[in-house]
C-alpha cells in the first residue's frame, strides 16, 4: 500500500464511487478505501432482512410471513432516477448500464386535500385530471404548451418573457394559475423542495419542468427509473468502471489518520502503512471537523403487504406531498417499490417516507405520509443529520461531499458530484470530454 496515487477516495457512497470512476476514466491513479465491508456507505442497500432488523435494533427475527431474508434488499436512502436526468446520462456515457437492469416506476402522484392524484404532465392529462376545474385545466394546458415550446435561444417562443429576469411567480401569474396548481407544478413537476424558487429567474423552473416532461416521454408511465436489486447496484457499477480503468479498491480498511503537511493532504494512514496522494475525496463521516450540520432528515422504511391505496394497485410509485398542503416549509416524499424490482419477498412492498425535519417531533411530521400507507406491517425509522463541507477544499485538496437530502430523485446528488469535480479540476464537468477520453482508450465500444 506504500504507493503514490493522484486521488484517494474514502467511502463507497454513490457520489464517491461516481467520482472515483470519473477520475479513473480521466487517466488518474485512484485508490478507493472504505472502513465498511460493503458498498454504499450511508446510501447502502441492506440484505438480508435480518440485517435490517439488527441495524434498527428491532428484537427477534422477521416473521415467517416476510418470506426469505435474502429476498430483501432495502435501500437506506431511497431515490429514483429521472429517465432523462443527469445520473442516467452519466450511466450511459460511462456504459455502467451494462452492469444494471432498470424498471420504469409505474406512477407519479401528488397529494391534495388528504387524497392523492396522478400528476398531470402532458396537455392531454391536464384536460382529463380531476385535480383542477374546467377553466383551470385550460389555463394549465396553455402553460404546458408555453413550457414545451420555450427556447431561450429563440425569442419568438418566449412571449415577451426574459428567462433571466422574469421570476417564476410572474409566469404563473401570466397564465392566471391558482395556488394549488402552482403547488403541484413547482413541487411535483419541477421537484422543488420549498417555494424559494418562485422569486428566482424562471429559466431554472422551466428547465426542470421540461426535464420531467422529457423523462416521462421516454417511457410513458412516469419519469422515474429504478434499478433491479436496489440502489446498492449503482455504486458497485461505478466501482467496476473505476477498476476497469486501473482504480484499486479496498473494503474493510480502517482509516487511522489523514496525513497533512503545511495544511495540505499528502496521504492516508491505514494499519501502519501510508498511501500518498495529491487529492482526497470523502463523505462527511471521514472529516467531521471540516463539515457543519445544516439540518436533519427523517426517513421511515415501511414494509406493506399491499400496494398503496388509490394508486391503481401499481407495483411502484412516487407520491409528493407539497408543503402548503400540510402547513410545512418542506415537502414530504413517499416512494414505493416491490417484489417486481427484486428487493422484497413476493407480494410485499417497501414504502419509504422522508422529509426535512422542522420540529422536535419528526415522526409526527411524516404522519400524512404514513396515513397513506396503512396498514403497515413493520416500520424502521431513522433521523439523520445533514452535513456539508465548511470550505471548498481547494487549499487542503480535501473534497468532501454533502449528505443526501430528503428528495426521492438523484438530481441534487448529481449537482454535488459536478460541484466537487469543478473544485478538484478547476473546470466544469463535461460529459463530451468524458466520452472522448473513454473512446481514446477503448475505441467506440457502443
TrEMBL record:
Membrane topology listed for this record: Peripheral membrane protein
SUPFAM superfamilies xref list: FAD/NAD(P)-binding domain
Protein localization: Cytoplasm; Golgi apparatus, trans-Golgi network; Membrane
Keyword annotations from UniProtKB, A to Z: Acetylation, Cytoplasm, Golgi apparatus, GTPase activation, Membrane, Phosphoprotein
GO MF assignments: GTPase activator activity; Rab GDP-dissociation inhibitor activity
One Pfam family per UniProt: GDI
GO terms for cellular component: Golgi apparatus; membrane
Keyword hit for Phosphoprotein: yes
One GO-annotated biological process of the protein: vesicle-mediated transport
Main location: cytoplasm
Subunit structure: Interacts with RHOH. Interacts with the GDP-bound inactive forms of RAB3A, RAB3B, RAB3C, RAB5A, RAB5B, RAB5C, RAB8A, RAB8B, RAB10, RAB12, RAB35, and RAB43; binds RAB3D to a lesser extent. Interacts with DZIP1; this interaction negatively regulates the interaction of GDI2 with GDP-bound RAB8A.
Family per record: Belongs to the Rab GDI family.
PANTHER family per the UniProt record, alphabetical: RAB GDP DISSOCIATION INHIBITOR BETA, RAB GDP-DISSOCIATION INHIBITOR
Function: GDP-dissociation inhibitor preventing the GDP to GTP exchange of most Rab proteins. By keeping these small GTPases in their inactive GDP-bound form regulates intracellular membrane trafficking. Negatively regulates protein transport to the cilium and ciliogenesis through the inhibition of RAB8A. Regulates the GDP/GTP exchange reaction of most RAB proteins by inhibiting the dissociation of GDP from them, and the subsequent binding of GTP.
Protein name per UniProt: Rab GDP dissociation inhibitor
Source organism phylogeny: Eukaryota, Metazoa, Chordata, Craniata, Vertebrata
Amino acid at each position: 500500500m506504500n504507493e503514490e496515487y493522484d486521488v484517494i477516495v474514502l467511502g463507497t457512497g454513490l457520489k464517491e464511487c461516481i467520482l472515483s470512476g470519473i477520475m479513473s476514466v480521466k487517466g488518474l491513479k485512484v485508490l478507493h478505501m472504505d472502513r465498511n465491508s460493503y458498498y454504499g456507505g450511508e446510501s447502502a442497500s441492506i440484505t438480508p432482512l435480518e440485517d435490517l432488523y439488527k441495524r434498527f435494533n428491532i428484537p427477534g427475527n422477521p416473521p415467517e410471513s416476510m418470506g426469505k431474508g435474502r429476498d430483501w434488499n432495502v435501500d437506506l436512502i431511497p431515490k429514483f432516477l429521472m429517465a432523462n436526468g443527469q445520473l442516467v446520462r452519466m450511466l450511459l456515457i460511462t456504459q455502467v448500464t451494462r452492469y444494471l437492469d432498470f424498471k420504469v416506476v409505474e406512477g407519479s402522484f401528488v397529494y391534495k386535500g388528504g387524497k392523492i392524484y396522478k400528476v398531470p404532465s402532458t396537455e392531454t392529462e391536464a384536460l382529463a385530471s380531476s385535480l383542477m376545474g374546467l377553466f383551470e385545466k385550460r389555463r394549465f394546458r396553455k402553460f404546458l404548451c408555453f413550457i414545451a415550446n420555450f427556447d431561450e435561444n429563440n425569442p419568438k417562443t418566449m412571449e415577451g418573457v426574459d428567462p433571466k429576469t422574469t421570476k417564476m411567480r410572474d409566469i404563473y401569474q401570466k397564465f392566471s394559475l391558482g395556488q394549488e396548481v402552482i403547488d403541484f407544478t413547482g413541487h411535483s413537476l419541477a421537484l422543488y423542495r420549498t417555494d424559494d424558487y418562485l422569486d428566482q429567474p424562471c429559466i431554472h423552473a422551466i428547465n426542470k419542468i421540461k426535464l420531467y416532461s422529457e423523462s416521462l416521454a421516454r417511457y410513458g408511465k412516469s419519469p422515474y427509473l429504478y434499478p433491479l436489486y436496489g440502489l446498492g447496484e449503482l455504486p458497485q457499477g461505478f466501482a467496476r468502471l473505476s477498476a476497469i480503468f486501473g482504480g484499486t479498491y479496498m473494503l474493510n480498511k480502517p482509516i487511522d489518520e489523514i496525513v497533512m503537511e503545511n495544511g495540505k493532504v499528502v496521504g492516508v494512514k491505514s494499519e501502519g502503512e501510508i498511501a500518498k496522494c495529491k487529492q482526497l475525496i470523502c463523505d462527511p463521516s471521514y472529516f467531521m471537523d471540516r463539515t457543519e450540520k445544516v439540518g436533519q432528515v427523517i426517513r421511515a422504511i415501511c414494509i406493506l403487504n399491499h400496494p398503496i391505496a388509490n394508486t391503481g394497485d401499481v407495483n411502484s410509485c412516487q407520491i409528493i406531498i407539497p408543503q402548503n398542503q400540510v402547513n410545512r416549509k418542506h415537502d414530504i416524499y413517499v416512494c414505493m417499490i416491490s417484489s417486481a424490482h427484486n428487493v422484497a419477498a413476493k407480494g410485499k412492498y417497501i414504502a419509504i417516507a422522508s422529509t426535512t425535519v422542522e420540529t422536535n417531533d419528526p415522526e409526527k411530521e411524516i404522519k400524512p405520509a404514513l396515513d397513506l400507507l396503512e396498514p403497515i406491517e413493520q416500520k424502521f425509522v431513522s433521523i439523520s443529520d445533514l452535513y456539508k463541507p465548511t470550505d471548498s477544499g481547494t487549499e487542503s485538496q480535501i473534497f468532501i461531499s454533502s449528505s443526501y437530502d430528503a428528495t426521492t430523485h438523484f438530481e441534487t446528488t448529481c449537482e454535488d458530484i459536478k460541484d466537487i469535480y469543478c473544485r478538484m479540476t478547476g473546470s466544469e464537468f463535461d460529459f463530451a470530454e468524458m466520452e472522448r477520453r473513454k473512446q481514446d482508450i477503448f475505441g467506440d465500444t457502443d
